[in-house]
Amino acid sequence: MDSSSLSPYIILFNALSQIPTWHYLVALLIISITFLYKFLEVHFFEDVFFKSQGTPITYNPSSPFCNAILSSCKILHSRFVATTWISSPHFQTAFLQFCGRSPVFSYRRHLFRTSDGGTIALDWLLNADVSGGAFGINGASLPMNNAISQDETTPIVVVVPGLASSSTSNYLKNLAFNLAKHGWNVVVSNHRGLGGVSITSDCFYNAGWTEDLRAVANYLHDKYPMAPLFAIGTSIGANILVKYLGEDGEGTPIAGAVAVCNPWDLLIGDRFICRRLLQRIYDKALTIGLQGYAKLHEPLYTRLANWEGIKTARCLRDYDNYATCHVDKFETVDTYYRRCSSAAYVGNVSVPLLCISALDDPVCTREAIPWDECRANPNIVLATPQHGGHLAFFEGLTASSSWWIRAVDEFLGVLRSSPYIHVQKKQTSGQHSALDSSIDQYPHLHVAEDGTVTAASSEGKRDGIEDIKNLQMLSEEKTTEILSNGEQEKHVTEAKSDFMSETCQTSEIAKNIQGVESPDITSPLRRFLNQISQQNSISTWLLAFIAIRTSWPLVGSITKFIFRKRSRKIMPAAKQRKFLSLMDSIEVRQRLGTFLPLNIEVRQKIR
After folding, report:
1. How far is CA 603 from the centre of its chain?
2. Is 235 marked active-site?
């Protein structure tokens, strides 16, 4: 058969069939490797051929603290180079979970009781234990038994674990051992229900629950007042730590802190972790871990949450919908994520804070990092290595060390010997609530400019007292309008003194409100009105005048409508037009604020 009459496809097929099979296998292998290299985000060739200058650091250039501390942190400035055979964020994260190695030691355990009856396991690793080799046998915990005197000056580091992690996690044991070896007393504050401790109240931890950390920090500061107190948060623990620091501001006893792999914005993180196939694998793995946590406390979850929904949850969002929202009384999952995200609290952090977030973190996306807020705060240093995975950062040929642990140790060592450590200041206002719950716990009022009184939401709970003060200032302004020039200065002086005394009394009322279980939201306003009428005889008439004046436009319009119909029967046409024009002038001048001079004009026209 003539080859020119053959189909081109047949010719091509005959040519391809002449190629050896092993060539196809090699080509398939190259394509597969290329695909996996991109899919798994491997950066081996990038590390070899495109060496970066160092770790990008974001900070406020005008901050003396940042400039002084960063000049001494060599590791923080250095370039992180991942272990060659796990040069992928997914390999790094998986190696941390399944192959991570940790030193052999045992903690000293202290069970801390919270005010609501909950139990927190505080696991200590002392510098003396590491240097003296006082390790437990076969993992048995050592008793605390006043192992630290109250006059101890060795600095203390509180470690807040990640989601479903405890003091036995490999990365936390490596962190605790490394810090204790360099002169720190380390205490891991396990979340409620973890670390082998049962839940002894109806309160569970979540991503924004700061009350336990606040209670532990205050307890340690009160019991060991001579020892500087520092804190480290990892993953969800970092979110809790930053949120707590932002809530308490200058009032926290924490002298310095570090947040590693913080999710920052839980709502953005929720969208991210469902976006790609690999992220869905992490989502499912975290969900399984939380289901295991819930299984440990099944009787409580059966009573307080939707247990059937928890068992069938396929992602973190499902779990939070069936468990967290029920237990902590959030209306929706998005409400929970918004209220518990730490990004909104960054601006109020008053403690030296180092934040480390890998840009290729497969769990906590870089999209949620509050770059501008961190740059604007003079107390925050944000280090963003290009690689590292989630809480991994393994380096060296054998992946025996973690870069972030060395960087944290160096930062805290420089900070503790510097004059920039934070000193607790007394708070001028009450402590922030651990969680702004969906149900307001305080009877706050909102008084609008038109006199309308409504219950304030939890987001504006500090506005109630100031609204009452604004009502007093409004009363002063109305008083000066109706009093004569001779008496005006006298009454203004009296009103100012009344205002100062009322402010003090209002502050006392606000402090005592917190303990009321079923408060009447109108009682503070009634007490306020009673105090006004007792201290100033003109106040009752003043409030009546304000009510008449603010409602006059409506009354005037109704009066005009009624008299227009009746005047047609009892008034001549000329007087009727004169009366209606008079009513129109009253309404116009009332809107312009000239009501009082108009009274004289009305009397003259009536005569």
Report:
1. 63
2. yes
